[in-house]
Amino acid sequence: MSKEEGNVDQNAISSEKVQNGGSVNARAVCNVCKRLFRDPKILPCLHTFCSDCIAQLEPFSPSSSSWAGAVRRGSGGEGSVTVLCPECDSEVDLPTMGPAGLSTDHLALDEVFLETLVTDGPLPCDLCGEGAAESRCEICAINLCEFCCQAHRRQKRTSSHSVQALHELKSRGRLCRPVLCSLHPGQELRLFCQPCDVPVCLECAATLHRDHCCSPTHDVIDGHGDRIRELVSVHLRPRLERLEESLQKVDESQDLLTSRVDEVAQEVRAFARGYASAVEAHCLSLLRRLEELHKQRRNQIHLQRAQLRQALVDVRGGVEFAERLLSCGSDAEILSAKRVTLQRLSSLSETSYDPQSVAGVDDGSNICFLPSEPAGDVNGYPVVGIIHGKTADPSKCSVEGEGLQQCSFGQSGHFTLVCRDSGGDQLTRGGEHVVVSIVHKEKRNCTIVSSVVDNSDGTYSVSYTPEELGPYSVWVCVKTQHVKGSPFTLNIKRKPRRHSGMFHCCSFCSSGGSKEARCGCPGTMPGGFKGCGHGHKGHPGKPHWSCCGSTVEKSECLPESVITAVSARGHLRTVEL
Predict the structure, then answer these.
(1) CB within 8 A of 541, min separation 6: which ones?
(2) Mean pLDDT for the stretch of residues 13-21
(3) How many C-beta neighbours within 10 Å does residue 369 have?
(4) Angle, to 10 degrees, between the axis of helix 331-351 and the axis of helix 237-328?
């Protein structure tokens, strides 16, 4: 039986122990094949694997197909192959001769040998497989029975191998076996070649390394061992401690992270429960708001219905009375009731509801749900979604702008209607039924055409251009109802006249003593001078306009038919020439 076959049997024993739940020394097992080491080799990253397992690794370098191909290409850097360590995933370079060029892990061999020694039960012979093993060849690394051991010693190529009894190896408690030369079986590596930096046997030193400086291993071990100890104690041991501390901190951070994630998860769940409660409460609030709008609109419709019914009764009564008076009454009876009848009919024609005003009845079409609109906070949680159903309350609506009280003839007037709800808040949307009517109070059939523009923000811009002077009645209605203050009184006046003269204290002084200068005030000076002068009759006693005599600097120029006179008591009075 060959050396390899013996190793297979050892691995079979190890595999059987693992399958039966037995414990196997992990340092004697290859992490790739999960069996006892066979020819263990050390990678540059100091991880050990079987030589066959290393040979089966896929090349990592894209330019290399396999380590066998690299060996065929020859020695040198061109034939090197890069593989990934199965243990640490480091990129390591294999020598040109493949795994055979790697250093042998003798410590792993020791562990394998110890594992075979402590195996329960008798060890079978690795050669014949029948007898019980009593000795072990350290060169071939196989267990031998007594018969195979004698045959092993008689063979010429194995006669010099070191063979030891198994019971002696077991009694030692630890393995102390020599490291033998791979080129000269039976020769122990006792020398160290300094130039080649490798241990050698006596035959290697006499032949292959005869020109090199070879020293006994016990003479050079201190220097090389001290270098290893220095790297370990000075550099790597402190680094190891720092790495362990860092790893401990990372583990603690992992625990803290897990704890923190659990806390945040609890907060998220609590937030979700609270938010769901807030959403439910908001939903109930929206439904209550919707019911309030329903009641409010229903009451408004009831009010409009009552007003329309009353208007219908009034108009029907007036029409029936007038028709009966005209059809049944005599001339004297008609004339006797003419005044009161006309007054009532005129009042009904002005104040009664227009049948077309029913178009302004609120049917709730503007009630809608806006899911993306912010709705404030509920129990500390922000919520969205509002019920939009605010409608204009005519009693809360207001009119703003100077163009509602007065305007000049020939110029455009402007004012703004602001629609508000029952709570007094301005509406944010348009679409209300707005009617504006401007009627002359003294002249019949004299109305001003107005323009109403919906600004779509709850406001309506009204513009008009008067064509007649005098007072007007302005009706502003929303949903057929007057807004607050309606009807309004609007006065249309002439366009203010600008002064054509100068504001001065004396025409004599202002004109530089010119006798041709005239003044709007009746003051005169002696000697035919028609302008006013200080202290003379008709002088206002204060600065005034030379064109009309008005003593107000920022004022309208009086008409040509009006002059300003001063009475004996010094009071101003206006007379018509």
Answers:
(1) 566, 570
(2) 50
(3) 12
(4) 170
Give the DSSP H/E element, type plus range, for residue 163: strand 163-165
Helix%, strand%, coil% for the chain, nearest 5: 40, 20, 40
- pLDDT band for 77, please (50, 70, 90 cuts): very low
Answer yes or no: is pLDDT of 259 > 90: yes
Instruction: Kindly give, in sequence order, each residue whose CB lies less than 8 Å from that of residue 163, ignoring residues fewer than 6 positions away.
Output: 135, 136, 137, 138, 144, 149, 152, 153
Going by pLDDT thresholds of 50, 70 and 90, the confidence category of residue 175 is low
For 524, the token pair is: 């005169």
75: pLDDT strictly greater than 50: no
Residues 6+ apart with CB under 8 A from 373: 384, 385, 386, 388
d(CA 577, CA 562) in angstroms, rounded, equals: 7
> Minimal CA–CA distance to 548: which of 556, 557, 561?
557
Cβ neighbours of residue 489 under 8 Å, at least 6 residues apart?
A: 405, 441, 471, 472, 473, 474
Burial class (CB in 10 A: 0-12, 13-18, 19+), 452: middle
CB atoms within 10 A of CB 380: 8
SS3 20: coil
Check residue 266 and give its pLDDT.
Answer: 94
Query: Is residue 451 predicted with pLDDT exceeding 70?
Result: yes
Contact 137, 158 (CB under 8 A): yes
For the chain, how many residues are written? 577
DSSP 33-46: T-SB-SSEEE-TTS
Q: What is the mean pLDDT of residues 133-153?
A: 82
Tokens of 403: 């163009």
DSSP H or E segment with residue 538:
none
Give burial (CB, 10 Å; 0-12/13-18/19+) of 460.
buried
What pLDDT score was predicted for residue 16?
56
* CA–CA distance, 200 with 184 (Å, rounded to integer): 10
Token reading at 67: 């380590």
Q: In this structure, what token pair is assigned to residue 393?
A: 């309350």
Query: Which token pair is 3?
Result: 């050396």
Q: What is the mean pLDDT of residues 124-153?
A: 81
Main-chain phi, psi angles of 12, to 5 degrees = -65, -40
Which tokens belong to 214?
Answer: 């070879």
Q: Give CA–CA dist 243/251, Å, rounded.
A: 12
CA dist 1 and 274 (Å) reads: 79
Q: How far is CA 221 from CA 224, 228, 231, in A?
A: 5, 10, 15
Per-residue pLDDT tens digits for 469-491 = 888 888 888 888 888 888 888 88
